[in-house]
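Input.
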Amino acid sequence: MSHHEAHPLPEPPGRIALPGAVPGLAIALVLVGGAALGWAFTTDAQLAWSSYLIGAFFALGLGVFGAAWLAILYLARGNWSVTMRRIPEAMTAWLLPGGVLALAAGLGAHSLYHWSHADVVASDPLLLHKSPFLNMPMFWALTGASLLLWVVLGAALVGVSRRQDREGGIGPSRTARTLSAVFLVVFALTLSIVSFYFLLSLDAHWFSTMWAVLVFTDIVQTGTAFVAIVASWLILTGRLKGFLNENHLHSLGKMVFASTGFWAYIYFCQHMLIWYANLPEEMVYFLKRSENGWLPYLLILPILKFVVPFLLMLPRDAKRNPRKLIPAAAIVVFAQFWELYVMVGPAMGHGEHSAHAHLPVVELAATLGFLGLFVLVFGWALARHEAVPLKDPALAECLDYHS
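Output.
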């Protein structure tokens, strides 16, 4: 519950920069990822492009979650989160460079997407039927427009917050709620487009009406986990002392915990509906991920994304103690890479049978490289502005928040 008693304003923390070791580690990850991709491009183009796609989409999900989280909390009037708003705002800084890098995956379309080959489409009735949507001009136009809308609306949400930093008042908050309503409608449509082109069309013969919802749960689960890691670090280091405490972390931890259960629900529903209907055009997705060595990877996925984080975060203290929340959130972040590998890797067979499974060394290195780039951009954006929106009218309510 929230208490509206008078609360003395703590000493403003000023700007916050990531510890020097973090940018150093991020640069090292970028170099490792770049070296892995460089080696892959000289030996196996398909491995290189599939690794690139996994890493680019992984980081893109973190960036767009920042805008989505801002919009959700503005509309829900989640005033408890005011003092951690700079975290998702900084995450949105990735949308422009991350969008360009994700869009560049289209340069490897011939290695990634079976439908990008005109001769294959001409001899395949199903692909021919889907060709008005599955073609490269539509790919560039629709994904490019979607990513551009994310950049523009994300920047608008952050811009309103900056105006409130300068002018104060309730007006910017009202504007932010209007923008949030627009963004979430646009986001629902554009996320479907982006997830269909980048990921679903890897298995171009497969049908799924739940795919966009599943990708949405992935983004929410991973994004809240990243926010939880940063917020926990701020509490452990005392960077936002008086502004951020275990009560705020508890609500954030509950969001991570809830998103974990939500992912399990959606993932089970997709599997259950496919199993129950027993239709060949639907079953092919899980059949491909049960052959050629992929079954262990498929079975490990729900353990990483649901069982382990669910059990770790079940106690109340695990959501309030940053030392316990950080490891659980880190597992969730790693599990997102694992799911993307299970989505992308088997589809590289481009036929009735999946590609052969292998340890995802190059894929992991590429994803860590993209994560390193994301952290560098995130840290730059975080340090550019005051760490707390001191002129937000809901700040006092946030400071008195108890859960």
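The mean pLDDT is 93.
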